[in-house]
TrEMBL record:
InterPro entries: YdcZ. The keyword Transferase does not apply. One of its GO terms (cellular component) is plasma membrane. It comes from the Bacteria. The chain crosses the membrane at residues 36-56, 68-87, 93-113, 125-142. This is DMT family transporter.
Length: 154
C-alpha cells in the first residue's frame, strides 16, 4: 500500500506542476484571483460529485470542527493564489521548488514541536542539511531561470 501512496503522490505532484503552469498562463488573461476562483469552483463541483457517490464521512462534522482547524481551507487557498501569482514571474520549477522548500521548513518545525497533534520527530543534522540543499537548489534554479529569461529578451 505504501508504494501505491508514493505513486499517487508522485502523480499528484505531476498534476500540480501542470496546473501551476496552466493557471499561470491563464491568469494573464483572466486575472490571478479570477483564475484561483475558477480552480476552486471547479474543485467544489468535482468534489461534490465524489461526495455524493463515494463519500463515507460526515460532512456536517465540518460544523463541529475547532475553528483553528478550519484555517486549513484558507491556507490552501493562499497557497494556490500565491502559486498562480508566482509562475508567470519566476517559472514553474522555481515556484514549485520554493513551495516545496517552504513545506519542508515548516514541516520540520511542526514535527520537531509536535504541533497540531503530529508525531514528534526531533530536528537533526540530516534534516538541516536536507533543508540547506533544498535552499541551494532553489537559488541555482532561480538564477538559471533569470539568466535564461534575460537571454530570451536580448
Amino acid at each position: 500500500m505504501g508504494l501505491f501512496m508514493i505513486l499517487f503522490t508522485l502523480i499528484g505532484g505531476i498534476t500540480l506542476s501542470a496546473q501551476s503552469s496552466i493557471n499561470g498562463t491563464f491568469s494573464r488573461k483572466a486575472g490571478t484571483i479570477e483564475t484561483t476562483l475558477l480552480t476552486f469552483l471547479t474543485g467544489t463541483m468535482f468534489l461534490t460529485v465524489f461526495i455524493v457517490f463515494f463519500g463515507k464521512g460526515n460532512i456536517l462534522a465540518l460544523l463541529e470542527a475547532p475553528k483553528w482547524q478550519l484555517s486549513a481551507a484558507f491556507l490552501g487557498t493562499m497557497y494556490l493564489l500565491l502559486t498562480v501569482m508566482a509562475v508567470p514571474k519566476i517559472g514553474v520549477i522555481a515556484t514549485n521548488i520554493a513551495g516545496i522548500a517552504g513545506q519542508l521548513v515548516i514541516g520540520v518545525i511542526i514535527d520537531h514541536f509536535g504541533w497540531f497533534n503530529s508525531l514528534v520527530i526531533e530536528l537533526d543534522v540530516k534534516r538541516v542539511l536536507a533543508l540547506v540543499f533544498m535552499i541551494i537548489s532553489l537559488y541555482f534554479i532561480y538564477k538559471g531561470n533569470k539568466k535564461s529569461a534575460e537571454g530570451n529578451q536580448a
